[in-house]
Amino acid sequence: MIQVIGLNRKPKIAIDGPAGAGKSTVAREVAKRLDLKYLDTGAMYRAVTLKVIRENLDLNNNEAVISLLNSTKICLGDLQEVFLDGEDVTEEIRKSYINEMVSPVSALSAVRRHLVTSQQKIASETDGIIMEGRDTTSVVLPHADYKFYLDASLDERTERRNREQLGKGITMTAEEVLAQIVKRDSIDSEREDSPLTVVPDAIVIDTTNLSFEEVVSEIIRFIDIGL
Ligand code: DC
User: Is 99 near ligand 1, meaning CB less than 6 Å away?
Assistant: First the structure.
């Protein structure tokens, strides 16, 4: 049994940060080492974005957005598979055309309310969870036992995204990747509803010059766990 010292339950941990800061890979590894459930909230926004694109939905039509959300089922598997209405869309939601649209879709309050409600339900039903996204420290889990904000320089985040895209066989120029990140950063942090922000009680880790292992160890070091 893994516990936060002083608690008789496993911890709830929230990690936020901009695109390309390495949140997903780090959060997944920390969850594995500490035997916690991992929830990638961005995957839920990506799945909704895929459906919005497929249905050619007008984002200004709030009623249509709400109706789409109410008729959509998103399931996340333990191996990070993502199912949209029963279809495995794990790979599809990582494609560049989703990157292009996910920030505007995520800025819609109706979408945020809907997904935050289900994320909070999952957290309340799970003993021990790491949630990662843009508003998990501020909105989804404001009372998390630990809050982290992972950051990295724009150059480093672009470089990481570049490597990731190449690994998937996606060919984009470095300039295109940079432009996409800059655009997403500005929409994610300037939107009115729950923008990406550093909450006062977050532990901020600049990962620019840290290896993957160093970031994982740093996070685990902060988590006071009685193993
Ligand atoms: O972490 P990611 O790149 O998969 O997230 C995709 C987008 O989803 C991100 O640009 C903004 C949105 N998002 C959000 O608004 N709130 C979250 N908690 C997670 C992601």
Answer: no
Token code pair at residue 110: 């109706």
6 sits in which H/E element = none
Parallel/antiparallel/unpaired status of strands 146-151 and 203-206: parallel
Q: How far, in Å, from the CA of 169 to the mean position of ligand 1?
A: 22
Q: Where are the alpha helices (DSSP H) in the chain?
A: 23-34, 41-54, 62-70, 96-106, 109-125, 154-167, 174-190, 212-222
Quick one: CA dihedral 27, 80, 16, 139, positive or negative?
negative
Q: Which of 15, 26, 41 maximizes ligand 1 atoms within 8 Å of its Cβ, making it the mutation to test the pocket?
A: 41
Structure confidence by residue, pLDDT tens digits, 99-115? 999 999 999 999 999 99
What is the per-residue pLDDT across 176-188, written as a single tens digit (0 to 9) for each? 999 999 999 999 9
In the chain, domain spans:
12-220
Query: Cα separation of 99 and 82, whole Å?
Result: 16
- The fold of the 12-220 domain, in CATH, is Rossmann fold (3.40.50)
